[in-house]
Amino acid sequence: xYIKWFYFRISRLWRVWLRGAWYxxxxxxxxxxxxxxxxxxxxxxxxxxxxxxxxxxxxWGQFRNVGDVRRYKKWRYRGCTYGSCxxxxxxxxxxxxxxxxxxxxxxMKHGKIIGRGNTATVYELKEGKVLKLFSQGYPKEAVERExxxxxxxxxxxxxxxxxxxxVFCEDQMGIIYNRVEGESLLDWVxxxxxxxxxxxxxxxxxxxxxxxxIINVPNYKEFLEYNIVKGLSDNLEKRKKALxxxxxxxxGNVLCxxxxxxxxxxxxxxxxxxxxxxxxCYGDFLYDVARTVFLVEYTPxxxxxxxxxxxxxxxxxxxxxxxMQMNVTRDMIKDYLYVISAARVGECPNEQDxxxxxxxx
Length: 361
What we know:
The chain is α+β, with helices and mostly antiparallel strands.
């Protein structure tokens, strides 16, 4: 009897010690593994990582033989369901971390790039999907905001790609979207020179966006106020004027894209699709129209570009044609343009010299 009791006590102490050691292993080896393991979701879509069976790369199949792995069907983050994931436990964490690292390196080396922008690279996946992988060091909050915005507008009635989930590839974050076929409207109008038709495409799609209402995204005034305060901290008089003007601008709950310009519109077989939902907000739709005019007409062209006067005239003409299609006059948006230009100093500090040259502010 005593021997049984002694064995029970020893085994219990052993289990307690093991649980403590297990906790250390769980949380001490690599804090990033829980997040990095989400690269498995991208791996299921990558053709170049496909197995010999042709069914694609199965990380679950790769991991189930290396140790203790538990599968969770849903992973919830701030109320959003991102899809399946794996939770890795025990001593296998280090081995899995190395496997994921090799996966990420293979993906970055062999994945087919189909687009590249200032903040992200777009990789081709299988089943008509793409991975928008943001640059190293890009703010995590910004990626999360784009994903949340894309989910918030997913059921709205205008052409756009669906966002499926966020993934982690080493120390970079990405979002898996539907693939959008065709070419950007910016490339199309540069190639064809057909500004009238470009303005029609822009206006038709923008009007369909403006027919939707939303409130579970930021208000446009919050975005503008934050950047005005940030950018004009050394010019209190101009900041005060901009904030007073902002307060008088219209309110509403209309969906505003916030970054609507030909570079974020894709054209295929006469159909246009809008992408990039980082700056989605709600408010007065005139704000979104004014924002588009500002982005089309007043943002600077590359320093190395020749014939800048011709390019700026091209941009102004396109903005005028777009306003005509939207049935909006410049007088209707002049206050919005002033406030947007003041906020742009905080949003993109490197562009502020161009704004002074154009005499918006």
